[in-house]
Design a protein that fits this description.
Elements lengths: L6 H31 L2 H4 L12 H14 L7 E2 L8 E2 L4 H14 L6 H18 L1 H12 L1 H13 L3 H4 L9 H24 L4 H5 L3 H22 L6 H20 L5 H18 L16 H27 L5 H20 L1 H15 L17 E2 L2 E2 L2 H7 L1 H20 L3 H19 L4 H22 L2 H11 L6 H5 L4 H25 L8 H13 L28 E3 L5 H6 L4 E2 L23 H6 L3 H11 L10 E5 H4 L5 H6 L6 E5 L4 E5 L1 H4 L2 H6 L9 E6 L7 H12 L11 E6 L3 E6 L5 E9 L5 E9 L5 E6 L16 E2 L3 E5 L2 E5 L3 H6 L2 E3 L1
Parallel strand pairs: 5-6, 5-7, 12-19
Antiparallel strand pairs: 1-2, 3-4, 7-11, 8-9, 10-11, 12-15, 13-14, 13-16, 13-17, 17-18
């Protein structure tokens, strides 16, 4: 045997030829990690605090701590949010388990909180850097090693949501979704390529021809494992199952028209989704019915259904071949089979049918109403009802986005000429992800993978055009030592240099520049929110819940049995996880969009009690009715505290009426001397959010300011100027606390007797913990018998043990005045909390 053809020699030569590329991918991976670690100082603060980015990462840290406290049992139902109902956790278990296992290993079985926080902060950056590996291999098998290297470079710097969700401190499962879904596509592609190359037939499996079956079987099994890992990171993983099915239909049709067997495809699909169906079984919660949002029988059924789909497509193709039927009947047979299958499901289980039919619209459709205000699920291409490409450019850069479109077109032409399975797979995958970002821009962190691969595909074709392979061969044959490199460089042709420059300038530099700008850190959450939530934790009564305990979900149709001391904290849904994780208190609404209330279909629906109806309520009475209605027990209120910030009052206020489907009249045109300007109207200033945040709850009977953070320079002063302009008022036109906490109390009743129909006033000066003062006042008229009554929320005597330890209180007694008479009234905290009467 010739030594050059010996398997060991071939293996060594393959290793030697792959080594430079392996080293290059490793270097790119470390560069990718460096980019993601740049905001280190924004996460690990000098005071020792670890500041995770945005809201969902805080919830993952919450679930991680509960998991480690009760390992290996994880929390599935959480009563510490969406008070008074609690929430089932739809987050997949895998991301938390990976962090937990890492923490346990590094902490030798007993990790400290500092170690847990450190692991949590680094995890997204590491997973983001690892994504370089599957992207390289997909690029390699699509267009060669140079395409793979370019794809790895592009994803290493890919800006937008993929980068933001894989930066240090963004401890969320999104980066795991990207990593595992890309690994799934990589191994699925390898399984298909090897199965087709070996001309695999089902008979090879039955005849135990393992030489043919072995490699495709291994890749198919790993693809199934990766799909399961993806699915256990996000329950909506059926998105990629749908992509695999659509690809299968296209590939089967193409193979049938070309007279080729598709057994290789059927084998791969059946094995892959059989493995995934088996692996997901232990995580199913049958008690939740058939839902795609939690781990239910839906996930097993869809995997089995996809497996059956591959089997049916193969069976039909075999029948067509055996009966010599014309190829163009095959697509008709597939669509007829699909139609009959859906028809059977509709009659057998209407709920399952409805779920299947609505699923594509959920992913690919443009949302309206309140849901359209959720940043990550709004359309990539429509903002405010207007078509725009600005979001696409922000996520992928101008050159990257257009390169992906051009790459799709070139790939489509290549498929039309000669349909290679790997090209068809990437084409279908990319087109469907493009539709996905049309529906929800959150899928930008998926499409970044496609943009990187398609941009690399164009770059690879350009290098082929200038005969880059000749340089590869020359390098291998002529460069034996570093001294040979100068001579090799002289062999470069002008067109090859220009091609490299074009790729560097038009494709690499834009993503690199955007990544450098974006990876400088985030101020989210604002430190004022952290400070306010820590105050909430230390200065409000214990709600009586074991924070790190695992609670059983209530029986179907029943409420969770909260202790009498439990209460909710009302705020906009964005801040629910901060309130829970930092404040250790129970928010009414959270970033799962639970507890928002309002309407979903039309203005004629009942306005369900929740955050939106409360914050947009046009009077204290209306707001209190909402607050009391949140809790199904008429003896209990839905919340004890209300938290607000300037962003709620200005930047995102209009999102609140969007959820009630009643958006008219909050802004109106006013003549200002320079023309008409849209300014906040009476309806806006009458809203509970405005009354609380801008007017400090002045005049409200049962809501008192108990804490405020420091003031920022915001738009608040301008809004107060508009208020004074519209109402002829004179409230100070200054910025006040950025975050404010109010308490809902029964209020003390101050009663007295004066002349009939006499105007009676009450007022006091309130001093906040920030040293700011404002006036609190009410006015009423006595009745025909001279009786009057005020309900006031502030205590003049300070806090009492076991209750709110407020630092915002009157500077002195209340002053009741009528005519020329004034009377001072002091009010105890007990009177405020118990609704006691104080007679003047």
């Amino acid at each position: 045997m010739n030594s050059e053809n010996h398997p060991a020699t071939t293996f060594k030569s393959r290793i030697k030829s792959s080594l430079p590329y392996t080293l290059a991918v490793a270097i790119i991976g470390f560069v990718s990690l460096w980019v993601r670690m740049r905001p280190y100082d924004h996460v690990f603060l000098s005071n020792g605090f670890v500041k995770f980015t945005s809201n969902d990462p805080w919830y993952h840290i919450r679930t991680l701590n509960v998991l480690l406290e009760n390992y290996p049992q994880r929390m599935f139902f959480n009563p510490m949010t969406n008070y008074p109902y609690g929430s089932y956790i739809h987050f997949g278990p895998l991301y938390d388990q990976m962090m937990a296992i890492t923490s346990l290993i590094l902490g030798l079985g007993s990790p400290s909180q500092d170690l847990i926080n450190t692991v949590g902060a680094y995890f997204p950056a590491v997973l983001g850097a690892l994504t370089v590996i599957p992207v390289y291999y997909i690029g390699k098998y699509l267009g060669g090693r140079k395409t793979g290297i370019l794809a790895a470079v592009f994803i290493a710097f890919a800006p937008g949501q993929f980068l933001s969700r894989s930066l240090i401190g963004f401890t969320d499962h999104h980066v795991a979704e990207s990593l595992f879904s890309t690994f799934f596509m990589m191994f699925f592609m390898l399984a298909i390529i090897t199965a087709k190359k070996k001309n695999l037939r089902f008979e090879d499996l039955f005849n135990k021809n393992f030489i043919v079956v072995k490699e495709p079987l291994i890749y198919s099994i790993i693809a199934g494992v990766m799909y399961s890992a993806y699915q256990l990171s996000w329950p909506g993983a059926s998105l990629f199952l749908f992509i695999a099915l659509v690809y299968a239909v296209v590939q089967y049709i193409l193979d049938n028209f070309n007279g080729e067997s598709s057994d290789y495809l059927g084998f791969t699909g059946i094995i892959t989704f059989l493995v995934s169906a088996i692996l997901i079984l232990p995580f199913i919660h049958p008690e939740l019915g058939f839902s795609m949002y939690y781990y239910t029988w839906f996930h097993v059924a869809t995997a089995i259904g996809t497996m059956a789909g591959f089997a049916a497509l193969s069976l039909i193709q075999r029948e067509f071949k055996n009966r010599n039927l014309k190829a163009y009947y095959y697509p008709l047979a597939i669509f007829l089979l699909g139609f009959l299958g859906l028809l059977a499901i509709r009659f057998a289980s209407p709920s399952v049918y409805s779920l299947i039919i609505s699923a594509p619209n959920t992913v690919f459709g443009v949302l309206t109403g309140g849901a359209a205000t959720i940043g990550e699920v709004s359309s990539m291409f429509y903002y405010g009802g207007t078509f725009t490409l600005s979001r696409a450019f922000g996520n992928f850069t101008v050159s990257g986005f257009f390169a992906s479109i051009i790459g799709l077109i070139i790939l489509l032409v290549s498929v039309i000429r000669k349909a290679k399975p790997e090209e068809v797979l990437v084409l279908v995958w990319s087109i469907l992800m493009l539709f996905a970002i049309y529906g929800q821009n959150r899928f930008a962190y998926y499409y970044s993978i496609n943009v990187s691969i398609l941009s690399a595909y164009i770059g690879g074709l350009l290098l082929e055009k200038v005969k880059w392979n000749e340089l590869d061969e020359k390098f291998k044959s002529s460069v034996k030592s570093p001294a040979d490199i100068p001579g090799f460089l002289k062999s470069f042709r002008a067109k090859q240099v220009l091609a490299v420059l074009a790729i560097a300038v038009f494709l690499i530099y834009p993503v690199y520049g955007a990544a450098m700008v974006q990876s400088t850190g985030s101020n989210d959450p604002d430190w004022a929110w952290i400070e306010a939530c820590l105050w909430l934790k230390s200065s409000t009564p214990d709600p009586g819940m074991d924070y790190n305990a695992i609670y059983e979900a209530p029986e179907d149709g029943k409420l969770f049995d909260y202790p009498e001391s439990a209460y909710g904290v009302m705020s906009w849904w964005d801040y629910g996880h901060y309130i829970e994780t930092l404040g250790h208190r129970m928010p009414n609404a959270n970033p799962f969009q639970a507890g928002i209330g309002g309407r979903r279909g039309s203005i004629n629906e009942t306005n369900v009690p929740g955050a939106a109806p409360f914050l947009t309520a046009q009077s204290e009475e209306e707001a209190t009715e909402v607050l009391e209605s949140i809790h199904p027990d008429p003896e209990k209120s839905g919340a004890r505290y209300i938290m607000s910030d300037e962003r709620m009052a200005v930047d995102i206020f209009m999102a609140m009426p969007e959820w009630t489907l009643d958006t008219e009249g909050y802004m109106q045109p006013y003549w200002t001397g320079d023309g008409y300007q849209y300014l906040p109207s009476k309806r806006y200033f009458d809203s509970m959010e405005s009354r609380l945040h801008f007017l400090d709850g002045n005049g409200l009977k049962q809501y008192r300011l108990v804490y405020e953070t420091w003031a920022y320079q915001t738009q608040e002063a301008g809004y107060k100027q508009v208020y004074n302009f519209l109402y002829g008022s004179s409230i100070p036109e200054v910025d006040s606390g950025y975050v404010k906490i109010f308490e809902y109390v029964k209020g003390a009743k101050i009663t007295g007797t004066v002349s009939p129909n006499e105007t009676v006033n009450i007022n006091t000066t309130i001093l906040t913990g920030q040293g700011r003062t404002f006036e609190y006042s009410q006015s009423t008229s006595s009745d025909s018998e001279g009786r009057y009554e005020f309900i006031v929320p502030y205590s003049t005597e300070g806090p009492i043990p076991g209750e709110t330890q407020f630092d915002t209180a009157p500077t002195g007694a209340y002053v009741v005045s009528y005519g020329d008479t004034t009377t001072e009234v002091r009010v105890s905290e007990e009177a405020v909390l118990n609704g006691e009467e104080i007679k003047v």
